[in-house]
Specification:
The chain is α+β, with helices and mostly antiparallel strands and 419 residues long. The protein has eight helices and 21 strands. It is globular and about 55 Å long.
Length: 419
């Protein structure tokens, strides 16, 4: 590439296809940008070929592109479709694993089926047995220590400085009253809740163990622009094994940890295409800086609708995602019985759907079925890879994660995190 004054340098950031600026969908969002930032409405989509930047001058090597400015991208996320209410002032301390590195972070909270009052929020590095490994850093919302929000509202804090490495675990403590958005299963062991105001306590919170994710939807970390994935799916993606689970065991988290790339989780237990499409904006596309989406959806729709509608819904979903992310589609896992409908129809529809995915979604297919089914029966799991004939075991999630890593590495995905 030439070095003349009129030559622009193209920075190839392969997967940074689009940036979504501002939410849309079923819920309200309140966003508090730092004072020195531009309004969210000024953001623009990134072109598929990369970013044009001015030529490097004045003591810099003109053959090298200028570094891109840091940006906020998610290192942790959950959809939090359900709701949990607390009567009086209550403190939650959630132990949260974060797969993105950077120097600053901000938090997003969501209310449930009623208004929510956030009194105080702090964040710190997580220590042993519920204690903090660093001093609690107070979070603010447009400069205030807390705020009140309406039903089904997402709020984003001001950024704070807190250096974080890929894979660090944070202790997010918040004092609340009212209704919080929640997961349907336990995913954050090592977390706790206690009546009263305790967000600044550096020792163990005390109270009672509380592993259900509530309130805290997203941790965004500011760092160099990089690949950032979100996984869309049902209970298989959210991480149900026995209901007392760990997000660190899910295929999405394990694949991201292996790759050194965030793969955050927007799976929702019980979800099918109808809810997946209806809630897409508020639960997944609201995330800042997502570049890739992995879809594993449809098993809850088998036998409920004609095959033609299944395929049309999958195509509709992938078309909806096109402006926001490169979409990778997973084949449906074996299913050894049907909770609803006729099992023979479930088996036939699953085969039709997987054949369509392999044919129409190439090359961006992650063939989960191929690595999890028994050699003598495509509808059965390999021994040890399931817990109930539908949901994968922790070992099954591991096999799925390995296949995600294999496919993404073939397509050039590699760690872009700071060491």
């Amino acid at each position: 590439m030439g070095s003349g004054r009129g030559v622009a340098l193209r920075v190839g950031l392969g997967a940074l296809l689009m940036l979504r600026c501002g939410p849309s969908g079923y819920e309200e969002e309140t966003f508090f940008p730092p004072e020195d930032s531009a309004p969210a409405s000024s953001c623009e989509a990134l072109p598929s070929g990369g970013l044009e930047v001015a030529p490097v001058r004045g003591g810099h090597d003109p053959g090298q592109p200028r570094p891109l400015p840091p940006m906020f991208q998610p290192g942790f996320h959950l959809a939090l479709r359900w709701s949990h209410s607390v009567g009086g002032l209550t403190t939650f301390r959630l132990r949260v694993p974060v797969n993105r590195a950077g120097q600053r972070l901000r938090l997003a909270f969501r209310s449930g089926e009623g208004p929510l009052v956030l009194r105080r929020v702090t964040v710190a590095h997580a220590g042993n047995e519920g204690s903090l490994a660093s001093a609690p850093v107070p979070m603010t919302f447009s400069g205030a220590p807390g705020l009140s929000v309406a039903t089904r509202t997402r709020v984003v804090s001001d950024p704070v400085s807190l250096p974080i490495h890929f894979g660090d675990e944070l202790a997010v403590s918040f004092e609340v009253e009212g209704s919080l958005a929640a997961s349907a299963i336990e995913l954050l062991p090592g977390s706790a809740m206690r009546s009263g105001a305790w967000a600044n306590v550096e020792g163990p919170l005390g109270g009672t163990a509380w592993a259900v994710p509530v309130g805290l939807a997203t941790v965004e970390v500011e760092g160099p622009p990089a690949r950032a994935f979100v996984a869309l799916g049902d209970s298989i993606t959210e991480g149900y094994i026995d209901g007392h689970d760990d997000i660190r065991d899910t295929w999405a988290f394990r694949a991201g940890a292996q790759l050194g790339v965030p793969i955050v989780n927007a799976g929702v237990s019980g979800q099918g295409f109808y809810d997946g499409l209806r809630m897409l904006d508020g639960e997944a596309l609201v995330l800042s800086g997502i570049t890739d989406c992995i879809v594993l959806l449809g098993t809850n729709d088998l036998s409920g609708v004609p095959d033609s509608k299944l395929l049309a819904d999958m195509e509709r979903l992938t078309e909806r995602l096109k402006p926001f992310c490169r979409t990778w589609t997973g084949t449906l896992l074996p299913k050894e019985h049907a909770n609803n409908g006729k099992y023979e129809q479930v088996k036939a529809s699953r085969l039709v759907m997987n054949a369509w995915i392999r044919e129409h979604r190439r090359p961006d297919v992650i063939d989960f079925e191929a690595v999890t089914h028994a050699p003598d029966n495509v509808h059965h799991f390999l021994d040890g890879l399931d817990v109930d004939g539908i949901h994968p075991s922790a070992a099954g999630h591991g096999v799925m994660a390995d296949e995600v890593v294999r496919v993404l590495r073939v397509h050039g995905v590699q760690s872009q995190q700071a060491p």
